[in-house]
């Protein structure tokens, strides 16, 4: 009697397995016909008895499931996740040799669908969705670590800091650097450099005669940015000690890495240590003397710790390197005008003696000279930002103080236009 029960049980399992194979084949045929609704329905029927299937059948089921959900997903994150999870399961179970080509094509198609959809999300500022899609893309192909990096970046933009921290930590644990080879050539007609997506594309344009001077170089490491963002997240979480320890260890490993110097400088600034920030930025300036952003940041930090003369010097250097640097021009003008408060205070505290009257006239002259010195800087800023009401208002008031009525009236009229008066 026991034998009969065992045989019956074996027959039941065989029937279930046969039915399951039939449903998977039906799902495959529906997929090939692009009838995804029917394919999903067949897969759901097969799923009901999946526990009784052998590993080969399970691998086939997950392969087909991933193909169907990839093809039908569009921008649907739920379907994309289902496709990604099914693909990972198929890989885990092991594809048959004859299925390896299908698996490779599926991996490419699924990654392309996830990444392209994530780019759409980024462009519409749906950063959390973009992060989820890029993370799933990374899980489909873990050799593509840039997907995890961009998943973390989008998590930061979405203010999902715990998720970003987890992804960044994974990148550090795997020794992520992020530097990659880029293929560059110079446009023969314009003299401008262009970066190509591949060596073959670059070489093709060289052969066509449109480009010259082929160059291969490595992009800058992204490790500094990873560490900077991690330290900023720790600081935002009130975990200053973790932030300092992380940065200290990183700097010991790479003492000459300017990207890490920048990350440490950002950490110092965030923690309120403006003195250390300025010292670190000075080191960066020495190693990167032609970068206007470095000198701009140095100027800002020196202004904040009261080093006005140094700040003016650094703003001038930033503007020298980048003459159309509107923010530097505006900040420089504001910094120079900040002297007005002390001049006016001193003027108001003077008495009525002849000596005080003489001093008053000197201070008045100094104030007028300060206004005159600032005018060219603000005029340049106005050229760059002609619709900025604050620049126009400041210039208007200065021209009023300098007695330049025509300029004052011109700017007053322009300000009224901008403010709709």
TrEMBL record:
<protein>
    <submittedName>
        <fullName>Tetratricopeptide repeat protein</fullName>
    </submittedName>
</protein>
<dbReference type="InterPro" id="IPR011990">
    <property type="entry name" value="TPR-like_helical_dom_sf"/>
</dbReference>
<keyword id="KW-0802">TPR repeat</keyword>
<dbReference type="Pfam" id="PF00515">
    <property type="entry name" value="TPR_1"/>
</dbReference>
<dbReference type="InterPro" id="IPR019734">
    <property type="entry name" value="TPR_rpt"/>
</dbReference>
<feature type="repeat" description="TPR">
    <location>
        <begin position="292"/>
        <end position="325"/>
    </location>
</feature>
<dbReference type="InterPro" id="IPR050498">
    <property type="entry name" value="Ycf3"/>
</dbReference>
<keyword id="KW-0677">Repeat</keyword>
């Amino acid at each position: 009697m026991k034998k009969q029960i065992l045989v019956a049980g074996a027959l039941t399992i065989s029937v279930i397995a046969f039915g399951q194979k039939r449903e998977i084949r039906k799902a495959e045929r529906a997929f090939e016909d692009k009838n995804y609704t029917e394919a999903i329905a067949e897969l759901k029927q097969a799923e009901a008895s999946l526990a009784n299937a052998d590993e080969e059948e399970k691998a086939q089921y997950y392969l087909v499931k991933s193909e169907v959900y990839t093809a039908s997903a569009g921008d649907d994150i739920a379907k994309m996740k289902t496709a990604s999870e099914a693909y990972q399961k198929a890989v885990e179970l092991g594809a048959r040799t004859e299925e390896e080509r299908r698996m490779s094509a599926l991996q490419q198609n699924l990654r392309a669908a996830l990444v392209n959809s994530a780019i759409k999300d980024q462009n519409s500022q749906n950063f959390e969705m973009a992060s989820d899609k890029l993370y799933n893309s990374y899980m489909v192909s873990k050799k593509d670590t840039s997907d995890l990096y961009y998943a973390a970046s989008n998590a930061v933009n979405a203010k999902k800091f715990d998720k970003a921290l987890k992804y960044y930590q994974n990148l550090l644990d795997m020794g992520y650097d992020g530097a990659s080879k880029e293929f560059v050539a110079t446009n023969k007609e314009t003299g401008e450099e262009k970066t190509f997506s591949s060596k073959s594309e670059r070489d093709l344009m060289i052969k066509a005669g449109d480009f010259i001077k082929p160059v291969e170089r490595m992009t800058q490491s992204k490790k500094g940015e990873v560490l900077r963002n991690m330290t900023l997240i720790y600081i935002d979480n009130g975990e200053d000690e973790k932030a300092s320890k992380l940065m200290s260890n990183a700097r010991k490993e790479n003492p000459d890495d300017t990207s890490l110097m920048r990350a440490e400088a950002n950490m110092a600034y965030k923690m309120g240590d403006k003195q250390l920030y300025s010292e670190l930025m000075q080191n960066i300036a020495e190693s990167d003397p032609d970068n206007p952003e470095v000198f701009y940041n140095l100027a800002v930090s020196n202004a904040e710790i009261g080093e006005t003369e140094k700040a003016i010097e650094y703003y001038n250097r930033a503007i020298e390197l980048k003459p159309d640097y509107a923010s530097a021009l505006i900040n420089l003008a504001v910094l120079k005008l900040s002297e007005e408060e002390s001049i006016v205070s001193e003027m108001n505290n003077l008495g009525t003696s002849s000596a005080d009257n003489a001093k008053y006239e000197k201070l008045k002259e100094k104030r007028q000279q300060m206004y005159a010195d600032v005018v060219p800087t603000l005029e340049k800023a106005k050229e760059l930002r002609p619709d900025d009401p604050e620049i126009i208002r400041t210039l208007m008031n200065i021209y009023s103080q300098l007695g330049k009525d025509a300029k004052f009236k011109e700017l007053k009229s322009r300000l009224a236009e901008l403010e709709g008066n």
